[in-house]
Design goal:
By secondary structure, the chain is α/β, with parallel strands linked by helices. The protein has 7 helices and 13 strands. The strands form 3 sheets. The protein has a 6-stranded parallel β-sheet, with helices on both faces. Strands 6-3-4-5-7 form a 5-stranded antiparallel β-sheet, with no helix packed on it. Helix 4 links the parallel strand 9 and strand 10. The radius of gyration is 21 Å and the shape is globular.
Length: 276
């Protein structure tokens, strides 16, 4: 049989194990231009929590009783497409099944491409060389437009996107500051990733003061991944003509409580640009 991870019910608040189920399903038969893939790895990303709710955002919600879906990596075991053969490896948007059918879509390299398992570890294609890396590059370079000498702040800085943002910012000649949720992660940022400054937001008594201490010249680009009080603290330290790139709001994904947005007056006074 073919084990699948399905959404059994929609979470009310934080997702729980009993919101999911393992279900045996039949092995699908590939159609024209499809390949049958034995999945080896799949990516678990924060945005998946939003797809568990019955609300359309920038992507469609998961269907109850159907498998989860995210970017995955697997080996072709059967092909109905002339460009692929058994033994090839691919990265594609796949349901969470041991064996699944994938439509070959070479025009969508973000969510489908052939990969070489002898080039780099295949899991890199779910991180630095995959959606997180593309998100970091597009968000920071394309939207944040940092200049050498500017200060870039990134929340959830030790994660797949945040850590990549930090490295890109360093290569662009920026001062990079990050926040994380443990002392071990802060140590990783400072010593392994060579951030210029970092702090543990869970142990800081005053987040606004923590941002000001680490960013004495203010923040020119805020790469926002978290939201909530931490975002407001960074917002209070933004410079004139600064940019806030809202990539994620992970502090809000598992709550239905309403949240007021940041005050709008600083956007006018400091000419801040905010973009999702």
């Amino acid at each position: 049989m073919n084990k699948s991870v399905i959404l059994k019910r929609r979470p009310d608040g934080p997702a729980r194990l009993d919101d999911f189920a393992i279900k045996d399903q039949s092995i699908p038969e590939p159609g024209d231009d499809e390949i049958l893939v034995r999945q080896r790895y799949f990516s678990v990303d924060p945005y998946l929590r939003g797809r568990m709710d019955d609300v359309r955002t920038y992507t469609t919600p998961f269907e109850l009783g159907e498998p989860f879906e995210s970017d995955g990596i697997g080996e072709v075991i059967e092909s109905r497409h002339p460009d692929f053969k058994p033994g090839d490896w691919v990265m594609a948007a796949m349901p969470w099944q041991e064996i699944c059918c994938v439509t070959v879509e070479p025009s969508l390299p973000v969510h489908f491409r052939r990969i070489d398992p002898d080039d780099v570890p295949v899991t890199y294609h779910l991180g630095l060389l995959g959606m997180p890396g593309q998100t970091a590059w597009t968000g920071l370079k394309g939207l944040g437009q940092p200049k050498a000498g500017e200060t870039v702040f990134v929340s959830a800085a030790s994660g797949a996107v945040g850590s990549t943002v930090g490295q890109i910012a360093k290569l662009l000649g920026c001062r990079i500051v990050g926040s994380a949720g443990s002392d071990e992660k802060v140590d990783f940022l400072l010593n392994d990733l060579q951030f210029d400054a970092a702090f543990n937001y869970k142990t800081e008594p005053d987040l606004t003061s923590a941002v000001r201490r680490c960013c004495p010249d203010g923040v020119d680009v805020n790469f926002e991944n978290v939201g909530g009080p931490l975002m407001e603290a960074v917002y209070d330290n933004m410079n004139i003509f600064s940019r806030m790139i809202v990539c994620g709001l992970i502090s809000r994904y598992q709550t239905k409580d309403a949240q007021l947005g940041p005050p709008i007056m600083p956007v006018l006074i400091k000419r801040i640009r905010i973009q999702g």
